[in-house]
Write a structure and sequence with these properties.
heterotrimer, A alpha+beta (167), B alpha+beta (169), C alpha+beta (223), B: 169 residues, alpha+beta, Beta-Lactamase, 6-stranded mixed sheet, 4 helices, 19% strand, globular, C: 223 residues, Muramoyl-pentapeptide Carboxypeptidase, domain 2, 4-stranded antiparallel sheet, 7 helices, ER-Golgi transport (chain A), golgi apparatus (chain A), Longin-like_dom_sf (chain A), transport (chain A)
């Protein structure tokens, strides 16, 4: 390993916030959204932008189940001694070369998986808004059966109007 | 930046090298096999485990298997979604971050660090190029395959990793 | 020496304690200042806004409740209608009471009644007026009130197999209660008329009974 310099981190350069950056922040490229129920079943999936491979419904079901399992295992893989009162969380962010997957687990065990571009800013904000829409248009709908697949027009509509026009 | 552990898996899903910089919190018995489990900083390893209150009866090998299963599933998931030329890079939880690098020969390098660490793909790549290739591949005495988890028991590689990690972090 | 007294005394405190006990057991909650909604002035309307979320949950449960043992969508709408009806009757009294004393008058003609519904009632229930009031072209006795985004339906997505259903049947029941209370027997139904801009648009169809139309024609002539 003699003599090679490691490009561990990009050199620090002052960064100025300009109009271009502000415009860039508003760009929202969300590839897809998946909602997984407590038991690991897929209850909602929707694609918004091109960018990921097209998967069949069956593939999505498998993906949801796999992720549910891996999420549980990653809790156990925690190398640190456990701090009482603060249980380890599972996967929160997964990065690949072409996308970024953010997972948000509600206190009730429902998981929201948001697939975005690798450098999408403000994903926490987006996912919270999605959770808000879910609490409004799914959980307040008397025709929705808990833990069952989500088929709510109002949820679809509001999700689309939140995510789509910000392209 | 803190490194917790480092693992190499060969193309037969076998863990051929693992090194921990922290005492493993979730194990009940140390490795029985002659795997090059580096114990340089694990002076209290057995003692800690004896008083461990963790209910889990997992051994180091079980941990490695879980780790492999996780990265394998995630890698396949990423390939399915992002296409065959996409690569799984890392994931993070609230407590730790896992970095992943896969060579064209299907060797998998996995490193667990704290969550604030930036992407370590380059570091893992350097370990592969400058240490693994130099001291393991080019070493005529090193086994090519690792049946029964023989592992990379190689002093030069071991020392290289140790000094590389302490230099890099 | 104390024994006989002890047996005689408890009667009085028990009587005194009674209201407190009722407060904890009965359905009505007593706030710390011991003033219930019945102690409030009926004219107070400024601070009477309610949480939309809690209404949404309550209404959701009302719909679920009405859904039990129903035979079909018509039956479900009828049940929601029946739930709204008494509310309309009571609101009529309250809203007329709140009108300025000089001009207060029970609507005796159809148009003032409908205006009372689209403005006074709508503002009381939804804090805004209804979006349109029309008379049917085909039938003399039919009037239509449209609401572009009914508050009760805001969070409700009706499943495809029940697409005839509109949960605003509850509001239709309230309107029917008002009409009944004023002496205009009518049948009120809610219909979804989705448009591009207003996917939840609802039209309330008010069909007055023949005797109401007869009286209306008579009053028109008498003017």
């Amino acid at each position: 390993m003699a003599g090679r310099n490691l490009p561990l981190e990009a050199p620090l350069r002052p960064r100025y916030v300009g109009a271009a950056d502000v415009a860039e922040w508003k760009v929202m490229v969300v590839f897809a959204l998946i909602v997984i129920n407590k038991a690991g079943g897929l209850i909602y999936h929707r694609e918004f932008h091109e960018g990921l491979n097209k998967l069949s419904v069956n593939d999505y079901l498998v993906l949801a189940g796999t992720f549910h399992g891996v999420h549980a295992i990653t809790k156990n893989l925690c190398p640190l001694p456990r701090t009482p009162g603060q249980p380890p969380t599972g996967i929160e962010v997964l990065e690949s070369e072409s996308f970024r997957l953010q997972c948000f687990q509600t206190l009730t065990g429902t998981k929201f998986l948001l697939f975005t571009e690798p450098h999408q800013p403000n994903i926490d904000g987006i996912i919270r808004k999605v959770y808000e829409l879910y609490s409004d248009y799914v959980m307040k709908n008397p025709f929705y059966q808990i833990e069952m697949p989500i088929r709510c027009d109002a949820f679809d509509r509001h999700l689309a109007s939140y995510i789509k026009p910000r392209q | 930046m803190v490194v917790y552990s480092f693992h190499i898996f060969d193309r037969h899903t076998e863990c051929i090298y693992s090194k921990h910089w922290l005492p493993r919190p979730v194990s009940s018995a140390p490795s029985k096999q002659g795997r090059p489990q580096s114990n340089s900083t694990l002076g209290t390893y057995d003692g800690e485990d004896a008083i461990s209150t963790q209910p889990s009866g997992l051994t180091a090998q079980d941990d490695a298997k879980l780790l492999f299963g996780t990265v394998f599933s995630l890698r396949n998931m990423v390939r399915k979604l992002g296409g065959m030329d996409d690569n799984f890079v890392s994931y993070s939880t609230g407590q730790y971050k896992l970095h992943y690098y896969e060579t064209p020969t299907n060797l998998k390098f996995v490193m667990l660090t704290d969550t604030k660490t930036n992407n370590l793909r380059m570091v893992l790549h350097q370990i592969y190029v400058n240490l693994y290739v130099e001291f393991v591949v080019k070493n005529p005495l090193s086994p090519v395959e690792h049946p029964k988890g023989e592992g990379v028991a190689n002093e030069l590689f071991e020392m290289g990793v140790e000094s590389f990690i302490s230099a890099a972090f | 020496m104390n024994a006989p007294q002890a047996s005689a005394v408890p009667a009085a405190p028990a009587a005194l304690q009674q209201p407190a006990q009722r407060a904890s057991v009965g359905g009505l909650r007593y706030p710390t200042n011991r003033k219930t909604i019945y102690d409030r002035n009926l004219n107070r309307s400024r601070t009477s806004e309610l949480s939309k979320a809690s209404f949404a949950y309550l209404f959701g449960e009302m719909v679920s409740y009405a859904q039990r043992r129903v035979t079909g969508i018509q039956d479900l709408e009828r049940r929601l209608n029946v739930q709204g009806h008494p509310l309309g009757l009571r609101l009529l009294d309250l809203l007329l009471y709140r009108e300025p004393t000089r001009s207060v008058q029970r609507p005796t003609r159809i148009l003032p009644l409908l205006q009372f519904i689209t403005t006074t009632l709508w503002k009381h229930l939804f804090s805004r007026s209804a979006d349109a009031l029309e008379r049917s072209k085909d039938n003399e006795d039919e009037y239509m009130i449209s609401d572009n985004d009914p508050l009760v339906n805001q969070y409700i997505s009706v499943p495809k197999e029940m697409n005839q259903l509109n949960c605003a049947a509850y509001v239709a029941g309230i309107i029917e209660g008002i009409c009944d209370g004023t002496g205009f027997a009518a049948r009120v139904t809610a219909h979804s008329v989705p448009t591009e801009l207003w996917p939840a648009k609802t039209v309330f169809l008010i069909k007055f009974e023949p005797e109401v139309m007869e009286r209306e024609a008579f009053l028109e002539k008498a003017r």
